[in-house]
Amino acid sequence: MTTRETTTLAPPPPPPSFTRRIAHALKLRLHDPIERVSSSTSTATTSSYANVDAHASAMGTVDVAACVAALSDVLATTSGAKTSSGTAQPQPTTRVGDIRVRAVVERRAASLREMYLDESLRAQSKLTQVESTLAALDEAREKMRHALESSRSSTGTLLREADRAREALASIESRRSLANDFAVDFQLTKSHVEALVGDGADDGGDLGAAFFQALDRVKVIQGNCAKLNDTDQRRAGLELMDVMTSYAESAHERLCKWVVAKCRRLAEEDDFISEADEKTLTKSVAALRLRPTLFKHCVEEVTRTRHNALFRRFITALTRGGAGTKPIEVHAHDPMRYASDMLSWVHQAVASEKDFCNVAFGENSVVDIDGESFDATLSILQKVFDAICRPLKVRVEQVLMSASGGAEGGVMTAYKLANLLPFYRTLLGDLLNENSTLTKTLNELCLSAKTSFADSVAQHGSKYRKLSLAPTSFAGDDAFAPPPALREGVASAIELLEAVSKSSTTNASVSDAESRELLASALDGLIDPIVAAVDAAARVLADRVASAPSIGPNWAGDAFTLNALHAIREPLRAHKAAGAKVEEIARLIAKKVSNVADIEAEALLASSGLSDALELVVLYQEQGASNGVMAKDPALKIERLASALSTLVDAAGTKAPDFVQIQTPSARRDVAARYNTRLIEAYTRVYAAVLNPSSGYDNPRASIRHGPDALSTVLGGLE
Hints:
Layout: H1 3-6, H2 16-30, H3 42-59, H4 64-78, H5 94-186, H6 190-197, H7 209-228, H8 234-268, H9 275-288, H10 292-319, H11 335-361, E1 366-369, E2 372-375, H12 376-384, H13 386-403, H14 410-431, H15 437-466, H16 484-506, H17 512-547, H18 556-572, H19 579-608, H20 610-623, H21 629-632, H22 638-654, H23 665-691, H24 708-715
Antiparallel strand pairs: 1-2
């Protein structure tokens, strides 16, 4: 083998065109969308290569596996030419390689075209389906358009009808709203009508809140109807007003019956009213006030029912009693307790009735009826108690008669009753009108009580007019002392004064004027008969002394009177209420003191001869005599006057009385003082007249031994 044959020659480098073809083949292997590759000429191939390059650059990366497969095909072709001796011979590869590459490329191009055709057929099939679908859609669209046009033409009428129906509905809704508003302003609901005309409330049961709500609703509708009368709907307003008026009439009549029944029931239950009944009753009366005539009728019916109920309750309290209380007539044997229980029951009844009227009719219960004011509370209080006036008066008058019947303690009982009745008259007068029958009855009973008390006092004092108080024994120091019967009469007066004192500290039964008048009449009735009996006894005693001077002095009757008057006055002085009577007795005592002292002084002056001289001196002084007229009178000679004055001084020291017949030391001192004053005044007046130069006496001091001071010294002076 030659060196050429044995030596493996290195393949020559492929031409540039080959490289481009390989790249083109590789690119065609990886990418199918090649439309057309020309294999006729190198020029066309070159242009296709350029297109492939552009396409490959546009498609991105190169498939390595495809490149290897393409190269294997080429290499297999080029390496298949060997020599016969088994040694590969170098072949000329330029032309043959080009052909093979072209064939590969063409096959690949044909394959791609087939694939392209297949895909194009499939795409065309899809497009055909799409076209058929679009055609079906167009057909359906046309059908729908035709159907829509047909339905539009057929539903146009329905739409127009719907619009007309909508407009009619709006009109109906508007009318419905107007009807509802009208019903709200001018109509009553079914529940309101049932509440107004319902049954079962006339027996005093509960009316309920629905009734008053319905009644208020009627008033509101009536006001709306009054406004409607000012418009062009006057006829409708009048018709509605008539309907509402009929409802209101029925409601107010029902209210009236309910109020009467409720008041009757409350009167039978002692006016125990619950809070609910109080509110309902207040609302009912307030509603009836708007109908004055019906309101007055209701008040009259209430008055009648409560009048009868009160009479039954009073008789029951008198005869059977109440719950837990005895009948009042159980204490009929005790006049004061009996009368007090009856009057207390009446006072409680009046107070309860007034409280009921205030609750039912209010504090201001006056309404105007036909221009005249009508007070419901006053009307009820004036007439309700007419029923109990007669039984009360009969029983109290029986008590007064028993008190003035002359029983023991009748004066005190009559006095207490005479105070008790004005006390309740004052209490009830504050609750009732002075024109009410009960007030008039109490006034009559007060007058009857005064008359009964006066009769009782007169009867009590009549026994002293028939009783002789003159002393029967004149021995001892108590010969002219007041008798025990006098002290018993004074004790009755003291008992009365103590009762007055207790009653004045516990209550104000009567006014001050009435109390003073009543007490004055009582003391007059009790004390004056005793004083009259004392005067009668003094006259009897004076007659006895005149017939038997040894019994006592000629003023023994006055001494007895002084002792008796002091026995009467001293117990009365402890009571302020008897001040007027004490002063009256003091004046009598002063008069008797003067009488005793004057009688004794006149006797001493007469015995001394100074009494006649004193009378002449007083006469001349009153006539204003002067120029010695007194000295010229024979009866007033200085010698006679001096002797009389001297005799008086001597007799005053030896014949002065001790007034032991007068037992009271104060009265004895008063008599002695009055006696001394009387003597000294007489002595002083004559003495002064003698010493007066106008009297005409010459040197009278030489004839008269003693002056007035000497007589005062003898008598012990003025105390």
